[in-house]
Task: structure prediction
Amino acid sequence: MNAAPSPSGSTRRIPFERLPVRRIILVALSLAIIYGVVAGSAATLRLGQFTGANWRQLVINGVARGSVYALIAIGYTLVYGVLFMINFAHGEVFTSGTYAAYFVAVGFAGSGFLNTHPLVSIAILLVISMTVSMVVAIVLERLAYRPLRGAPRLVPLITAIGASLFLQYTMRGLFGANVRSYPEIDVLQGTWNIFGTEILRKQAIVIVSALVLWIVLYLVVAKTRTGRSMRAVGEDREIAALMGIDVDRTIVATFAIGGALAGAAGILFVFVFNQVIFIMGFLPGLKAFTAAVLGGIGSISGAAVGGLVLGILEAVGPNLFLTGAAVPSPNQLQPVVAFGILVLVLIFLPGGFFGAAGDERA
Amino acid sequence: MKRSRTGKLLLVVAAFAMIAAACGGGSTATPDKCTSDPFGCVEVKAGTPITVGTLLVISGPNAALGQDSQNGVVLAADYLDGTFDAKSGQIDGHDISFDNQDDGCSAEGGQTGAQALASNPDVVGVIGTSCSSAAQGVADKILSDKGIVLISPSNTGPALTSPSQHQPFYLRTAHNDKLQGAAVADFAYNELGARTAATIHDGSPYADGLQQVFADTFQQLGGTITAQEAIQVGETDFTSVLTSIGTSTPDVLYYPIFAAEGALITQQARQTAGLENATLIGSDGMTSTDFLNAAGSAADGMYLSGPDLTAFGGDQSFYTNDFLPAYRAQFGADPAAVFHAHAYDATNMLFAAIKEVAIDSKGDPATDSSGTIFVPRTALKDALFATSNFPGITGNLTCNADGDCQTTATIAMVQVENGAMTAPVWSKQMTLGN
Result:
């Protein structure tokens, strides 16, 4: 994973050359997938069922959902980059902030404040969600992960899964198992016409917010003292400590930033989907983890690109690849399409899109 | 604490003697009907309650559905003594107690819950499941193998009572979806004048069966099905599937699924090109307050199908004047779904059958003064399948050999207006043909 930088590709080729049979199978599998994708897409386009406007809409939908994946994925990737552990409870960090903001939003909606002061309300909801998620992430680190820092890598992984279930069912106990509807904010309804394409306002806001948050985060990691400490700790924890970096503080900062982004992602998520339920973090968490791996876990740019690619694949893939192939109910196979492509990418780029680029590893 | 050796020996001998007495006593007191019944009897000792199992969805996003049915079961036990007084009535001098299990609205939940009930030897019969997926091939099989009757108040999947798949101890008081799917198609084609329709299901036997009956009937009537799509439970973004369906601009979009995904599809369909003017129709899996809350204003104008409560053939004045006030008083809310009525009838059918077949230790019909009573399992099942013209609040129930006790049903369409369901805007009586 973090081998010394080497000429591109050479480290990857060695295992293939040792095992020609495996290589043949992998190449055949890849060719089959590529053939399926190309033939299916060609057949779909020849069918002419979808108009250009349909495709644009599908891509926008994909970018919107991909943006949410990307924000959550950054939380996975930051923690991995610094600690080399996968924080499986990150999906629940996302849920906790969203739930906290839900109760405030219901209060605002009840008093009418939500629609008389929409921007102030959104800002307050965002701050509450980010704060709660951040606190949950920090507490999680302090209680569940720090005591196990010296343990073998599998141990914190198992704790993380335990923490994930613990948080999920705590929220279920506290808030019940019902689906709750987030109050609608009038200014977010309707569409904007951008470059001749109608875009749902909520989707536009999600895409722009995700972009802004990503840029801010990038600057934090690249330019600030905390960011430099994070990269140093990720590079080598002991040497960083010897250089005078407070490792514990840096790790807490990492969890805090990841948690805050998850909280922001939660608010963007409910703008689009209008629902909260205790289990809501599970699937997006899983998808975001996939996005982080696809982009190259440990890389911030990778998380962003991975999220977008996964989102677009999910939105466009089944309709594009399978409709023409006369597959019944193509959208039921959405995960098959998305994860099939994921396997394909990982065969050729085992480290993901940005896996080998050391400069962006937090 | 020291005891002599003879003392210990005496204790052991005494213990053996007691066990022998217990066994001997049990075997001599067991009526012949129990030894001849392949599944034996449930023995309810003097002074202990009769245990009725429930296997309903009481957690998760569909909890409102199962809770509503469970309330119907509780009220049936309450009314055994002829009054709603929040206390269970009695059968042959025995109170009723419940073993409540969760069907989880899934095959896994049905498996776990049915096994828990099957391992409880006191369970006389089970009211459940809520969701067809929890019953089909899971709970119906597990309980039938043990000779425990399972009466569902809300399973509507057609396969459950198809002769090839029907399990011998399974019955239902809910209508078969052959009736509902056909009624919705009739409504869409003849009442709305729709000529094209698309359907979405979530892979559950309930939704898949219902949309298939709808699609078949709609095509028989002369309409065109433009798409039959499916979604994944737990997903939140259905824009891709809706965009695909929207390309054929169907007049009607029918998605008989459950509250969480149903609400999201309702919201997202309103924003999808090609579906802006489509009439949205859901079914009884979404006829719950959870759905209305989650869908918000997007649900306004859509139709939901379900059994028609106002057209119940049964005693209407009893339902509105006695049953509903008792429901509100005991559970603090209006019914969240429609299946409490079916659950109430199912439970009463079970009670009537228990009264009919219960015997005392001599093999005579049990009475209030019998003390210990025995309920032969196969005889109980036979009594239930022989149910004929049983007066329920959903109409007169007659069970057929495949376990369908609601062979005719009035299916109604309600419309959503300002976040609430209207009175039925259309209804039709449907009869199960073979």
Summary: Chain B touches chain A through 37 residues (CB under 8 Å).
